[in-house]
Amino acid sequence: MTQNSTVLSGIQLDQFMDRLEVEHQENGADYLLGQLRAQPLKAASLESIDRLHVLWVNAGDADAAKAVLADDGQALIEATPAEARNELKVNLLIYQLRLGNYLKDEPSLLQALDTLQQLTNEPLPFDIEQYRRYRIFDDLQHTTPDVALKAIEVRHSLALINPDRHALRAWDDADQQRRRARVLANHDRDEEAREAALAAIAALRTAGEDQDVNGNDWLWLGDALIDIVPFRLATFEQPVVRLIAELSLPQRREWEVRLARLAARSRQAQDDLAGALNICEVATLSLESSGGDNFVDFHLPWLLESGQIDEAGQRAFMEIYEMRGELWPGTAYWVHERLLDAEDASAWWPLCVMRACDDQAVLERFISGLPWRDESTPPQGPLLDALQAARDDLGQIDNVFAQALAEARRRAPNHPWITRLMAVRERQAGRIDASTELAMLREAVSAGDMQDNRSAFSLFSAHANVFGILDALRQPLPPMASGMYYYQFATSIDDLVEAHVENLSSEEAQQAWALLYDVQKAAYEHGQARMEQCFASGHGHRFDACAHLYSMLCNNLAINYRCYNDQGLYGQALELHTRGIAASSFAEHYQGILHNRIRLEDNPGIVDAAEQLWHYAADYGYSRHDPEEYLQEVTRALYHLDREREIPIWLERILKWQEECGLSDKELEYSPLFARMKVAMYLSYSLPEAATSLWLRYAPHIDERDEPSLLGCAGDVLKGLGRKEEALKYYQRAILRSDPNNEVDQNNNEVFRQAIAALQAWDKPTGKAWWQIWK
Predict the structure, then answer these.
(1) Which of 216, 249, 278, 440 is most deeply buried (CB count within 10 A of its CB)?
(2) Contact 715, 752 (CB under 8 A)
């Protein structure tokens, strides 16, 4: 019985709950229960019902929580306009499902699910999709079979009443049966699971032309069901093979890797572990540019199951070595299991821990994958105990490393990777000098045949510290095992060179940058060859199959060809950008094509490339897209092609761009203002009204800036419009404002004097006037 009969509701209840949510953390459940029972409470909004019933749950009174949902919920329904009641009912039923799941109350869960399914037969004029996606439906699939299957059925019903999912009906049917198959298999109802799996396959196979079904859908279904119907591999493979037939070779190879993973899992599900491992030559090829998505979650346990302990240890080590803070946490679990096995003498397992101590973020990720230990767990040895202690104190990373080092040395005292990891760590700690680090790295890299980019970078950095950056850059490019290694080495040495050139003379710094671009070019070319070999054969190094990495490599090499060391390889750069787009398109390729067309003075190519870049950026986004940078070039190209009437299209785009950027005309910097004047000049000969309008808009800002090149450009506009006297004044003003010590200004002045002379000698011709582009 409550001590206070005043019912607390509305704002007062909200304030009361605000206080209780804080005090509960300080005083515990008993205190919370006493406060809730002190007076009658009535939640009169959906939010307050949610909060109040959760408080009752936290206080340990499940019946009171149910009463809030039932009684206060019903009162709220009655007070709600009819058109909004059904959405309110859906929300209250979601709360009931969450509460029933927390209490493991199967009857209430089944009742709430039945009620929700009945509700799907009524008008639900609101966005039902968000409710279908609620996590509670996923959670319920891990409860009893009856609840799980009913939850799947209700989720499917919610999908069917969403008119926006019409093209996904086949997918939704397949999803329902896929989920049913997984639940049934988890409860050892194998025959029913197979029937559900076959029904899911049939849903996609019989999908009509109006249904959105693609290769990803077949792989998604195969990934979920292959262990239930392992003999149906071809059912998943065949539609994918048909759908990818027209893709580029790099893209097809990626699909083949995914299909190989499905095939390997099919073999393993048929108890053919050896066959599964054979397929892993292809299945383990990485599909992420960083080396991730590499099938380690299947491959590593299979290696261990087959007794290939040392191979498994090396696989785990390279996963940690390459992925660092993005490593698969299961790797740590298996490292822990092998370190527990007294008969396992492989040095790779303590080496895994040494690498995990690369920094605290990596160690934290590694520890997150370790099995949980409580205080009753007996000691498991110095290394595993050190890892356990570091779980709550990452500051103990040095102790973990020391224990891992001791164990690795006990197992393999002269292991090259011990030397490799120790060299960098000791140098960073200041315990050895640069010459000692270099000697240790050379020994380790040679003895261990280390051909990865991280080892190559460490060796390069150590060499630069001892002999200088110029000498390091003149060394032969070290051999690396994969295209990814070459790519990552090339991209990582920029910052190192930048740090070293600060201590060089200007001439030496120029040499360093030129040498850097040569090294990067060689690395990218080697990487390109490696990856193309992998695409050609379907086999190669684990890190040579990612189409997006290949596309990035093509982009970087194309930039090198275009921009550095006066190579001028514009045709080759264009080919690289084309290959990159075919492999994995992104906006930089379209921008690169435009830059190369500009360098080649290919006017039709400039116009086409600008259009492609503009539309690609609009469709897919491009944070660095700035049409101000190429407005002048594309309008000049249109002018030369006698297509001036297309220039207003670009003018409209750029003015809208300026508006979307929130820039007033006064805020425009020099370059965009200059470009607008060039546009006005190109328009002046054929579309004088458009040119005049543009000139009038920006003339005040040209006058205010009083900058010589802008003034000269204004003269070009007015000259094109036939306004001879005004043009002469702007040319003369530009000459007066020029800097006598500025070479560019003086070169421009010569052009202005020629224009003045031409104006004074001739009237405006009937066609296009003489003009010259100047800078």
Answers:
(1) 440
(2) yes
The whole-number mean pLDDT for each consecutive block of 10 residues of the chain, a chain of 775 residues, reads 72 94 90 93 96 95 96 96 95 97 97 96 91 96 97 97 94 98 97 98 96 96 98 96 96 98 98 98 97 97 97 98 95 97 95 96 96 85 94 94 97 97 95 96 97 97 97 97 98 96 95 98 98 96 97 98 96 98 97 98 98 96 93 96 95 94 92 95 94 95 93 95 94 92 90 91 54 39
Do the beta carbons of residue 434 and residue 427 sit within 8 Å? yes
Nearest-5° angle of CA 705, CA 709, CA 712?
Answer: 100
Rounded (10°) CA dihedral 39, 42, 46, 52: 20
CA–CA–CA angle 581, 584, 586 (5° rounding): 70
Task: Give yes or no for a contact between 545 and 261, defined as CB atoms under 8 angstroms apart.
Answer: no
Neighbours of 283 (CB within 10 A): 23
pLDDT of residue 1: 40
Q: Report the SS3 class of residue 578.
A: helix
How much is the pLDDT for 376?
A: 79
Contact 523, 589 (CB under 8 A): no
DSSP element (H, E) containing 693? helix 688-705
Task: Tell me phi and psi for residue 595, to 5 degrees.
Answer: -60, -40
Cβ atoms 293, 324 nearer than 8 A:
no
Nearest alpha carbon to residue 208 among 172, 167, 242: 167
Q: Contact 272/305 with Cβ under 8 angstroms?
A: no
Tokens of 370: 């370790």
Question: Residue 281 corresponds to which tokens in the numbers above?
Answer: 């030559």
- Chain centroid offset of residue 641 CA: 41
Helices (H) and strands (E) in the chain, counts: 40, 0
* Cα distance between the two ends of the chain: 89
Of 654, 534, 599, 522, nearest to 257 (Cα)?
534
Q: Which two tokens stand for residue 550?
A: 């290949």
Return the biggest CA–CA distance within the chain. Answer: 108
d(CA 445, CA 442): 5
3-state DSSP helix/strand/coil percent for the chain, to nearest 5? 75, 0, 25
- Tokens encoding 91: 């929300």
Where would I find the H helices in 449-505?
Answer: 453-467, 469-474, 483-501
Q: Which residues contact 278 (CB under 8 A, 6 or more apart)?
A: none
> Which residues make Cβ contacts (< 8 Å) with residue 636, sequence separation at least 6?
678, 682, 773
What whole-number distance in Å separates Cα of residue 203 and Cα of residue 170?
5
Distance CA 438, CA 419 (A): 11
Tokens of 224: 């979920």
Residue 34, judged by CB atoms within 10 A of its CB (0-12, 13-18, 19+), counts as exposed
Distance between CA atoms of residues 714 and 709, nearest Å: 9
How far apart CA 318 and CA 284 sit, in angstroms, is: 13
Using alpha carbons, select from 450, 458, 487 the residue that is nearest to residue 289: 487
407, two tokens: 């164990």
What three-state secondary structure class fits 229? coil
> Measured between alpha carbons, how far is 691 from 669 in angstroms, rounded to an integer?
20
Q: Kindly state the tokens that stand for 312.
A: 């498994």
For residue 338, give the H/E element and its range. helix 329-340
